[in-house]
User: Fold this.
Amino acid sequence: MSRLHTFSVLAIILLSHVVVHTAEEQTPTPSPAPVPCSLKSNTSCEECLHNVACLWCIPTNACIEYPVKNILPPSSVCQLNDARWGKCWLNFQVLIITVSVFAGVIIIAVIVCCCCCCKCDRIGNRREDARVEKQNRARKENKKARRSDMQMRHDEIRKKYGLAKNNPYSRMNED
Assistant:
């Protein structure tokens, strides 16, 4: 179980490291006032994507204003496989698949960590409960042994002084 926990921790550290370095690489650089995307049509993908509000469509060589009303550009604007945004080498299909896989890995890692922690807690509680139960049984046995020893001593003292406990009402009858 510890190997699985170690693996999930390493996966989370690796993912956070990748995210931090990606964020560092994408630090915005000051640029001049953005030129409308439509003016950059029939140029190059790199030229179009200098403005983050633009979307490059490969088959039409068109630089289009990114449709912000939709999360993904509709097929009427450009097919996902041919659309480029941010980087010219990264299409939307690959981006969606990559983000989905990373999100799935993160969710699975969190679930595995939670399950491992909960299971370890339950095992720890079971062990603790078993230990406490064993101690209680030992205490009860010791208490029984002490009580029987005390009872034997009391009986010996009663015999010695002639106060045998044969009949519990014997004292009342003697008076």
Remarks:
- The chain has a mean pLDDT of 78.
- The chain has four helices and four strands.
